[in-house]
Write a structure and sequence with these properties.
The protein is α/β, with parallel strands linked by helices. The protein has two domains: 205 residues, Rossmann fold, CATH 3.40.50; 130 residues, 3-Layer(aba) Sandwich (Rossmann fold). Helices cover 25% and strands 20% of the residues. Helix 5 links the parallel strand 16 and strand 17. Bound molecules: aspartic acid (ASP).
Amino acid sequence: MTKPKVLLIYTGGTIGMIKAPETGALYPVDFQHIHEHVPELMRLNVALEAVNFHPTLDSSEMTPKDWIKIGTTIMENYNQFDGFVVLHGSDTMAYSASALSFMLEGLQKPVIFTGSQLPIGTIRTDGKENLITAIEIAAEQNHDGLPLVREVAVYFDYKLFRGNRCTKDSAENFEAFRSPNYDVLAEAGVQIKYNLDRLYRSNINKLIVKNNFNTKTALLKLYPGIDFSTYQSLFDKNHVEGLVIETFGSGNAPQDEKLRNLLMNFINQGGVVLNITQCNSGTVKQGLYATSSMFNQLGVISGYDLTTEAAVTKMMFVLGETTNFEDRKALLSQSIRGEMTIDRSSFFD
Ligand code: ASP
């Protein structure tokens, strides 16, 4: 039997760092020679190849151009490999994983993002376990020899999350990610236990890489006492075409005339507005309280249980996909890669 082939794509981040013994300074390893640093990889039943980004990036530097670079690398190698592991800084990993999930329509192979809190070249590193298990997951096949995972996912600290459902939760703990509104896809203990009914299956069979992100996107987080005049430029259609608002609780905002007028003008000019909650879990229910009825009246779109990372990248993606107002609204209103659960029930039925 031939070994499954996995491509490692090292973009940067802490995981790929080792310490120079003489100076103690951290520098990035060349993943082409990763076996020298993680000899355990030789014992895996996987044929591994690696490509490095030049230069490697701290993930705070990532932009849509870099997402496109990752997506293009996957596309160019799609037929030669059974799975992909993207090594990436953890800080913006949930943004990149969400963006890639939207880009890679019809994906039928695993794309597993991972990273670490401590460099792979340090004694207490979490990087080795994250790397080795991510590779095992990327190589995992079912009885028919088809990949088990066929979506963009994040593996971190013994858990596999849907990429567009997770969020970075801790700057310190090894358990750095959380998936607030969707079950984990797998948990790694003595064995890797997959939550089979949670795995995403696309009904499109051919990979289509869609790489237009429109950054005329803005994010506004509400807070009590907010003066909307300060944020007037976010509602200017010349600069912003899509606005994500992080509202209170189940999608609520102050009943503020200024906000109402800004929203009305923006939407009348063809701007799209997506409402997500700033709570750590749960969903938007527009119209449940008087403080969210305004959004329904004005045509603000409910983002239900989207994470901020998924909402912002979905907005950039949708604005890049089409310039048509109705098509933009339709795409934002539906779950296109399993990123959102549409919940129309009321708490008080
Ligand atoms: N600052 C780093 C980054 O996100 C942290 C990490 O690698 O986890 O690139």
